[in-house]
Write a structure and sequence with these properties.
By secondary structure, the chain is an all-alpha fold. The protein has 3 helices and no strands. It has one domain. It is 53% helix and 0% strand. Bound molecules: iron/sulfur cluster (SF4).
């Protein structure tokens, strides 16, 4: 978190109320050197709110569903 670009920005930026706000946060995350670690942290801890690692809440839910599906596919083989 100490290396994230968000430390230079108002934290509210990462908890947008609309799609425009998500895009604004995503632009900041795009230039962040720890974006992949940030996203993984949010996924691992199932953080529901905000933009983490450049992904919105909806995108993270989709990723988690895809991971669950992939792990089920592996266990049923
Ligand atoms: S990727 Fe994570 S650490 Fe980096 S700017 Fe975005 S919210 Fe902050």
């Amino acid at each position: 978190m100490g290396k994230g670009k968000c430390r230079e920005v108002d934290p509210e930026t990462f908890f947008p109320s609309d799609g425009v706000g998500v895009l604004r946060a995503r632009k900041i995350c795009a230039g962040c050197p720890v974006a992949s670690q940030c996203l993984e942290y949010a996924l691992t801890n199932q953080i529901e709110h905000g933009v983490w690692g450049g992904c919105s809440e909806r995108e993270r839910r989709r990723l988690l569903r895809a991971r669950r599906g992939a792990s089920l596919a592996v266990t049923t083989r």
